[in-house]
Write a structure and sequence with these properties.
- By secondary structure, this protein is mainly beta.
- The chain has two domains: 33 residues; 139 residues, Prolyl oligopeptidase, N-terminal domain (Methylamine Dehydrogenase, Chain H, 7 Propeller), CATH 2.130.10.
- Helix content is 14%, strand content 45%.
Length: 222
């Protein structure tokens, strides 16, 4: 590549970065200007609004909604704060601190974000999901202390069926089949559960330095 070509390439990249920065500032400005409404209207009912965890300085960590398809539209902010939140089927899950100590809890929320039940969590919240029906909740937390990884973080993923009360403390208790044969290993880690329905789900599995997408069946749990 000639010197002239390099100069032209550098100039083109600079213009592209400048354009991206300008676009970001404009979008951020629209978001900052969007009014935050009182908390009464925030709920987890299916509809034309998206529910999310706010990262705005004046409402950091609080659950909020915004019109679907208009991220710069008016935001409705609740008084509920979560480290992770997810809603589906008129129910929601909130992973949040449990008191002043470094402990956490899972809060089961109804369609109006009122807390129905709470459960202690062992680990730092990482991800949360709800099945389409709103009946099954899943969570992933970071933990330490597994002997196989020298004190580094590992993950635990579990599930709770609010309709039946059935719980899965960790997906590591499921039988794993890889390449048509049972697979067992001490370093199995699971995270990022996504539901197809109340019985079938997908998750990421890590073992022996590799990651796999796995399909799970709750009915197959011992």
């Amino acid at each position: 590549m000639t010197l002239r070509s390099r100069v032209l390439l550098a100039a083109g990249l600079s213009l592209a970065l400048l354009a991206a920065a300008v676009a970001y500032v404009l979008v951020a400005g629209r978001r900052a200007a969007a009014p935050a409404v009182a908390s009464a209207a925030v709920d987890a009912s299916p509809g034309d609004r998206l529910l999310f965890r706010s990262t705005a300085p004046d409402s950091y960590g609080r659950v909020a909604t915004v019109p679907r398809g208009d991220a710069a539209g008016p935001r409705t902010v609740s008084a509920l704060a979560c480290d992770r939140v997810y809603a589906a089927g008129g129910a929601a899950i909130c992973l949040r601190p449990d008191g002043p100590l470094a402990t956490y809890q899972l809060a089961v929320l109804d369609a109006h974000l009122a807390v129905r039940e709470t459960y202690p969590l062992v680990g730092v919240p990482n991800r949360a999901r709800v099945s389409p029906s709103g009946h099954v909740l899943a969570w992933t937390v970071f933990v330490t202390g597994d002997s196989y990884n020298g004190g580094r973080f590992s993950t635990r993923a579990g599930m709770l069926n609010t309709a039946t009360g059935a719980t899965v403390d960790t997906l590591e208790t499921f039988a794993v089949v890889r390449d048509g044969r049972p697979y067992r290993a001490a370093d199995l880690n699971f995270w990022g559960v996504t539901f197809a329905d109340d019985q079938h789900f997908y998750a990421t599995m890590s073992t022996a330095g590799h990651r796999y997408l796995v399909a799970g069946d709750v009915a197959a749990h011992p």
